[in-house]
Design a protein that fits this description.
This is NagC family transcriptional regulator. This protein has 13 helices and 18 strands. By secondary structure, it is of the alpha+beta class. The radius of gyration is 26 Å and the shape is globular.
Amino acid sequence: MEIRGHDASYRSRRPSYVIVVADHDATLPPPSRRNRIPVYTMRRWKGFLLATATTAQVKLHNRHQVLDHIYRHNGSSKQDIMRALNMSLPTITQNLRDLEADGLIQCGGFFESTGGRKPKRYMFNSLVRLSIGVRMTSDTVIVCAVNMHGVCVKRASGRLPYAHTDAYYHRICQFTNHFIRSLNVPSSTILGVAFCMQGIVSADGQSITFGKILGNEGLNTSTFAREIDHPCTFIHDSDASAMTELWLDPSIENALCVYLEPYMGGAVIIDGRLRQGSTMKNGTIEHMTLVEDGAPCYCGRKGCLDAYCSARVLTGHRNESIEEFFNQVRDDEYTHRRVFNIYLDNLALAIKNMRTVLNCDVIIGGQVGQYFTNDDMADLKQRVQRLDSFPDCSLTMRKSACAPDQDVLGAALTFVRTFVDEVCGR
């Protein structure tokens, strides 16, 4: 491939950057649809495939590259950017000036001098926008504000018994609006409000299509949008937790996430992306049949996994917390140890069945998962391998990130990721 052209900062009479591909049958991927201005346009000339870009397109591409580098490295000097991107110093200087004027980057002090003046440290302005995550459960509401690096900068919670009524949702809107006002930022700073829900969400994220836990089937974001002056969306709580997994560990390629909450759930990650399916039901492992005609499930059927592996199974009949249950297990109390062994057997069988369909790594999280020790994880892995029809020495099983308010954080990240991808041209 031969490349001819000019730097965007250089004022040439020719307004385009030309890439000549010396192959009559060569093809290039289509221009990115994510940017308003594509990085290049395609045409053929004398049998050659040409990719051309106007000066404006090249400038936008350079801007994206500079900002993406600063975002990923969380502190860069002009020299760092020049070496990494092979870009001229005048181009970098102009882009830094523009990005700083737009509020996307800021000076974060200076690096140590290696001779001469200390180089400036340019950092992404993580507070340029904020995203709001909200979780409503049977008796509480939690609201978090998340910056553009995925860090919770403020949190509020309150006790409010859930009710599928206009009065309840009005109070949620009041609570959320009061929280947003307490941030003392311009309204334009707020990207949106994402609600992580205990129920199946429609493909457009605007309604609840299955809501047996809280009895809110049919709930629509318009209920909140009437009082909250920001975009609103829904996301399944397990999918939201998986979003946080991906954010905290971008190296995850393929994984089945199992969240052992009071009402358990799951999520599927393929090729480093959350895969929810066309009907948003991928990963709803809680309703796979574990025992034919077994214990009743809240969905109305019998024998579902939730009836055997949710956190309620460990604590429901003893009026104790998860922490108290595991304290008894660690003390080797007979009844608690026996219940835990049965629990692990059921969980191992479920994981074995899941991996028959999706042979990938397994991530264990949720309220129960955070109390699993390394010995518990090794024990669970051995139980899965004993059941496996095809012994797999490559089985990787690990604990979830178990971040505080992981699902609320993940809900807010839906807006964060979209914004960062847009401004960085990803």
